Every structure is written in structure tokens, then in C-alpha cells.
Amino acid sequence: MPATPRLSVQLYSVREQVAADPDATLARLAGLGFDAVEPFALLDRPAALAAALARHGLSAPSAQAPFLSDDIEFGGRRVPLPPLAMTLDAARAVGAEILVDPMVPADRWRDRDEVARTADRLNAAAETAAGVGLRVGYHNHAFEFATGDDGVSAYEHLVSLLDPRVVLEVDVYWAAVARQDVPALLCRLGDRVRALHVKDGPLVPDPFAGPGGYDPAALGQVPAGEGELPLTAILAAAPHAELDVVEFDHAPGDPFAAVAASAAFVRGARGVGGPG
Question: What is the CATH code for 6-219+226-242+249-270?
Fold first, then answer.
């Protein structure tokens, strides 16, 4: 029987609290029974983050940072990204085993040649990462599931081109927003799925596809088990997952209470006891 995935929490869920007082935020998460977190601002003082994690009995088995693009948009301007080696060093500094790129922009999923170039970059990164004992992967949103003339989504076309060492961190909420049958998707992806982003909410129209843009607060996300996703079936469809990562793009009310409620749902669905 596969091992139960380790429960983690994406720190983006409590980003305002991290910005205000990172040490107190990590202490609060540890108090909720977490022993793992997933950092998102990986290049922001990784040594200090590693020390803070250790103080609170936490580790970071996975971490997110962009490495599949030359630059990213930040604060209304283009910001160049550091070399992959620097990002891998930061991942190693916080003790991560898996480095995940959180998003390749939507315009690079509309053309199969661009998808192939993304696959090439992921495969090259996997080779480099393997040399320092790390794995790399990709985290989806909704726009990757645009379907080509052959009826295959850009996302699954990407997967077909990947080195077996590349892992997938499937954001089940965004896949559902893209109107995927998520349990069926996970079954097709099989053992490539090594982490899940577990979140829930109403199945809103894809905010990346409309003129209004992406407003996290407008998504109406709720704690796991309280929305429209069949999360029990989704979790069961990923038997090779190593990590269940609780995440909110925007948490309702007290984000710590929302994170705790999601964690309780996941523990119950996985048949494991709570903290104590």
C-alpha cells in the first residue's frame, strides 16, 4: 500500500502574515500540527528561512520559484530571473527535495512549439537538478488545459514530452476550474504526480480567460471539503503523491482557521489522525 502523503501548507496562503512576522507565522503553523511548509519566495533570504524553519520544527520538502522563464512581470515591470544554479542553491539551502516552477505565462501554452520549448527547459533543469540531488516540477493553473486540434490539452502534451525525472504538482482547484475531470486526469498522469495543491471553492469561470483579470478574493475559495470539488475522490486518484499541500489563493476570514480546517479535512480523507 502506498505511503500516506505528507501534509504541507503553501506559505502563499498566509502571505500577509509572513510579510508582517515570518517567525510568528511559522510558529502558528507548527502549532496547528504542520511539520512541513512550501515556501514561495524562495530567493528571499533562504538561509534565514532555513533557520526559522528549524526553530519551529518545520521543514520544506518542496519549494516554488520560477526557473522556466527568462524574466517575470513584477510591480508592472519585467524583472530578470537568476540563473537556475542560484535557484537550486536556494532550494538546497531550505532543505527542499523538489523545486517547482509555479507558473509559465498563458501565452506560452497557445502554441505547441512553445509548449515543446517549455518541456525542453524542464528536461534540462531536471538534468542539472539531479546533479545536486534535487528534482524539479511544474505547478499548473487553468490555462494550460486549452485543447489543441488533436483534442489533447497543452498540459498533457507537455507531460508527453517530459523526462521521467520531472514531477508534477497538480493544483486540483485550477484543473477543476478548467473543467477537467480531475480524478480521471490524475489517473492518466499516474506516478508523475508527486504533489497536490489541495484547495476548494465554487467552479468559477477561468479568471485568466476573461478581461477582468485574476482577483484572488473573487474566487470564493473555502476550506477543503466545503466547496464543489470531489476532493475525497481526487485524493484517492493520486496514489503516488508524496505531498498534500494545503493552499488558498485567498483564504476566507482568518487564514489560519481556514488552513486548519483544510488540514483536518485532508487528514480525515487520508485516514490519519490529527495533531496532538
Answer: 3.20.20.150
